[in-house]
């Protein structure tokens, strides 16, 4: 479904602050897989998602989605294939617009626009059905401006909007990091429901090692632009956070010292 082949990305090439962000990344993600990605700051996690989404282009290597080479496709051209949710709950919605207006825009993601009305009785009914999956009561607030929602409600709405066009791939970029622990747990439960509803393939970046082991079917650990661990199946099921730290140390030859990861561990 997703195939990354020999991906390289260098920032500030040839300059004193040259940074090799990704080094020879090779990854195959079957349809329906749910991968969590963990690593310290500068490990290359967000750069990896940016190359998949089309926000950045690689210096070498290819990105294939559903058998098609999309390496040099811009973001808008990948919009029907890739949905993404960012860390900031404010980033994925239009604050001054209502819930139903935001959903109407999301429905047209990656499609040609027309002069036909974006809302009708049937579409509102479908919006209510989808919002009911969130179990937040938003199905009864279609005409509510998004700016009046809480951070958790807004992030849940963003998650729904990112998946309404039935993308091939969903990218979650530390999407619960700005939420309190209780709300984060709620958003994770909502994620499970939406992923099951649409049978999505998911890549989720997180600093929370417990979350990385609890969510999905497979965990990848990155360090200095490389994938150093790829854990799945029975090996992953038995792992604790301490096990993961030990594996990182054994593979990288050094201890993990990133406070954000250790605090969440």
What would you say this structure looks like, in words?
This protein has helices at 45-53, 75-78, 99-107, 121-132, 151-163, 181-198, 209-214, 233-237, 241-252, 259-264; strands at 2-11, 19-29, 34-38, 60-65, 68-69, 82-85, 169-173, 201-205, 218-223, 226-232. With 265 residues, the chain is of the alpha/beta class. It has a single domain, classed as 3-Layer(aba) Sandwich (Rossmann fold), CATH 3.40.50.300. Strands 6-7-8-3-9-10 form a six-stranded mixed β-sheet, with helices on both faces. It has a four-stranded antiparallel β-sheet with strand order 2-1-4-5, with helices on one face. The two termini are 31 Å apart. The mean pLDDT is 90.
């Amino acid at each position: 479904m997703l195939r990354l082949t020999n991906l390289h990305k260098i920032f500030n090439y040839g300059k004193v602050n040259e940074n090799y962000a990704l080094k020879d990344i090779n990854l195959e993600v079957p349809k329906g897989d749910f991968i969590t990605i963990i690593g310290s700051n500068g490990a290359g996690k967000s750069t990896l998602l940016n190359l998949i989404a089309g926000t950045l282009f690689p210096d070498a290597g290819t990105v294939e989605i559903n058998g098609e080479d999309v390496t040099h496709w811009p973001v808008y051209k990948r919009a029907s294939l890739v949905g993404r949710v960012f860390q900031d709950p404010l980033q994925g919605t239009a604050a001054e617009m209502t819930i139903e207006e935001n959903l109407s825009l999301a429905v047209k993601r990656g499609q040609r626009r027309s002069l036909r009305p974006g809302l009708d009785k049937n579409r509102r009914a479908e919006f209510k059905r989808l919002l009911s999956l969130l179990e937040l009561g938003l199905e009864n607030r279609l005409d509510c401006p998004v700016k009046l929602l809480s951070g958790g409600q807004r992030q849940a709405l963003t998650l729904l909007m990112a998946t309404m066009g039935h993308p091939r791939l969903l990218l979650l970029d530390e999407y619960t990091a700005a939420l309190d622990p209780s709300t984060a747990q709620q958003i994770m439960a909502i994620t499970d429901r939406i992923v099951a509803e649409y049978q999505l393939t998911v890549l989720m970046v997180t600093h929370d090692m417990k979350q990385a082991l609890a969510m999905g079917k497979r965990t990848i650990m990155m360090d200095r632009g490389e994938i150093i661990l790829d854990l799945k199946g029975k090996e992953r099921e038995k792992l604790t956070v301490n096990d993961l730290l030990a594996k990182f140390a054994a593979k990288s030859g050094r201890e993990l010292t990133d406070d954000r990861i250790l605090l969440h561990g």
